[in-house]
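Teaching note: in complex prediction, the entire set of molecules is handled at once rather than each chain in isolation. The prompt given to students was simply: 'Predict the structure of this complex.' The entities are:
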Amino acid sequence: MAKEKNGFSRRQFLEVAAGAGVLGGLYGLTFVGDTSFGKPRMRGGTKPHGYDLSVVEGAPNNYAKVTERAINEFGGIEKFVHKGDHVVLSPNMGWMRTPDQAATTHPDVLRAVVQLCEKAGARKITCIDYTLDDWKLAFDICGANRAVAGTKATLLSPTDASLYKDINIPAAVPKTMDGKPYESRHHYNRIQQMIPHDIMLADSFICMPVVKDHEAAVITISMKKLMGNIWNRKDYHRYGLHDCIAELNCAVRPTLIVADATRALQTRGPKGPGEVTTPNKVVVGIDPVAVDSYCCQFLTVKGVTPDQVPHLMLANQLGRGEIDISKLKLNEISV
Amino acid sequence: MPVSRASAASLRTLLPATGAVAGWKMVGAPKDYGPDTLYDLIDGGADAVKEYAFLSCVDARYSPNGRPNPSIDVNVYDMSNPLNAFGLFSQDREGSQPVNVGAGGARTTDGTGMSFWKGRYLIRLASISRSAQFKNGMLTLARAVAARIHGSSAQPELLQKLPPGMKSASEKYVKANVAGHAFVSNAVTARYPALGATAELFIAQFPSAAGARAAYQKYLAYEKGNRDLAPLKGETGFSVLDRFARNVVVAARGPYLVGVVRATNMPKAQALVRAAAAKLK
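The expected output is the structure of the full assembly:
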């Protein structure tokens, strides 16, 4: 397992609360005393009213309302965030790219979800993404600072291994696929993995990817987004990226997925700059295979279909979700 | 694998020094990246680069005032040979506008990204600024780097085998997972609008005819169970209505595997595959 990237001590982690710096003393209270191994305890989500996905389209100056409506049409935030919860949000905010460049979740979408979580009575809201670019510049340029300004949400880029906890992924992966024995890539290659303490212990975990092309993974939407929340990324690239993504999603199961399709990065993902289109939509669901399969249609320059995405195909075969969008019950609205 | 010192030193000579391009100063020192550290620069994008025999990369920033933000990032990649440099460029340029730099260049519609290839090198430039100053500066810096590169920029011979009718600037060199299949690799591809907006022809070259036939058999086995699977008359080939890729036609000819995917018209797809196969020896 790789050591911490730059020798930061535990107290020197990166947390920015509404524009002010907050050090690690407060953070330590999140995990003291926890002795569970390997299994995140986030609450599972449920589908309201029988819909698999709620899809709302609106104007570019209205992304906050689009986001709120999409979540309301899917049952409302109270179904996924309870009073007193520690909520972790997982937006894309790790690149020094402007919102127009579509490499990061739109700040209006992020802020809308933060405010809904506050309204639902969340005790603590943490936005997490591992930044490869300078975190101060990334959070500023992508608008994440602006998104959380004046709220109780904090931004975190956990670049120190001590901020992570072991997760037992093989235990969560089915042992059979299509009736035949399946040995997980994690087990076969003895891949050890860790996720941030905050995510392991979150009451509610909301995945908030922006829809993007990805030069290695074909797409990066909700399933690939979880790789922004792990420590050991290099083994995934070394031993089988798509297998590992599918298996990671068996172990980490977001309470809710809010996919930002207000813009779509069509080429040169995940970082760009590339070609950008504006579908102006937000897609909400709990099934990551369904969300990602549905969102493939927004990647029009390369004409991606779900069958071209190996991690979607494998996750579907492992029973993690539905890849055939013709089988989904959709609630599609324009505002 | 550590960064090759020889490769890294060579790449740095391609970077314009501070003041070499009027109005642009280098910010800090360039950084070197190799196959093991490229992830630290471009994260998952590193896999796609490494597919094309990547050796090393140097990353430098330029700004009018020496400050890091906003700046223009210039990344010079050593891709071993022109074939791989073109291959990576052909992935970069999809959807972008052509620009006259190096052996071939492309710029994003919003002007914040540029990519070009020359010789064995692929060069990428990026910025967050859309100002005229930065757009012009990006092109000037790109041409300054191009002027420092010498050597052949011949396009791959395999590209000549693509039949007429392709969409301009859609041709690519793809190393792996052609048409989404692990058993099809080392191919040129291009879009053919007459067959549909996303219809694509591929011509994969294998080391031998036996290799092409083995890949063909795997493709055939994959398509069993899909509708309307039928032999392609006059060829070692088949056509099928794939539940995801729509009309698919595949044929093996010598050491080549030729195919069309995502066609909206089956007779046209069959005709195109036959035309492509006829050009192959």
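Point out the following to students. The longest strand of chain B covers residues 25-33. The helical segments of chain B are 5-12, 39-42, 45-50, 82-92, 132-147, 209-223, 266-278.
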